[in-house]
Design brief:
The protein is mainly α. It has seven helices and three strands; from the N terminus they run H-E-H-H-E-E-H-H-H-H. One of its GO terms (cellular component) is cytosol.
């Protein structure tokens, strides 16, 4: 399965927000940190607001912030909410073409099982799990000062 860019950007936006100590930023801040298109991120922010993951404030002092603590934002729930379709093969799509072997095919059941396993793994994690290394993430995103790693040390 491949997640859409919308879901990918939604995860990145939430990671950025959870990494900031003040928790407030603008879509431009996120776009600059990740070098992503602002217009796409505006749509993502609107989706996240509509789903209750972020709060938005208009005006000069406006911006976006998490609507709940990172530990209350499940990764699986976010992926389910932002993905439009989970069809791993054309035969699983509502508008897909019929398959000649569909009545006797076992693959469809296997793909459903694989998708359930994929989502079950994501259900075990929250945004808090993703940002446990908040300081290091922040340094890569231009939040806070740079973090100096020991030689040979991986940031994760």
């Amino acid at each position: 399965m491949r997640m859409t860019l919308h879901t990918d950007y939604a995860l990145r936006m939430l990671i950025y927000l959870a990494t900031r100590s003040d928790g407030v930023c603008t879509v431009n801040d996120v776009a600059e940190a990740y070098q992503l298109p602002r217009n796409h991120l505006l749509k993502v922010a609107q989706t996240l607001r509509d789903l209750g993951f972020v709060e938005t404030t208009r005006g000069r002092a406006g911006g976006i912030r998490l609507a709940k603590p990172p530990a209350a934002i499940g990764v699986g729930a976010l992926v389910r909410a932002t993905e439009e379709e989970f069809s791993l093969a054309e035969c699983m799509q509502a508008q897909g073409r019929p398959c000649a072997i569909s009545p006797a095919c076992n693959l469809k059941g296997m793909l459903h099982e694989a998708l359930a396993a994929f989502l079950a793994v994501l259900d075990k994690y929250t945004l808090a799990d993703i940002v446990k290394n908040r300081t290091i993430l922040g340094s890569f995103l231009g939040i806070g000062g740079p973090v100096k790693l020991e030689e040979g040390t991986q940031p994760w």
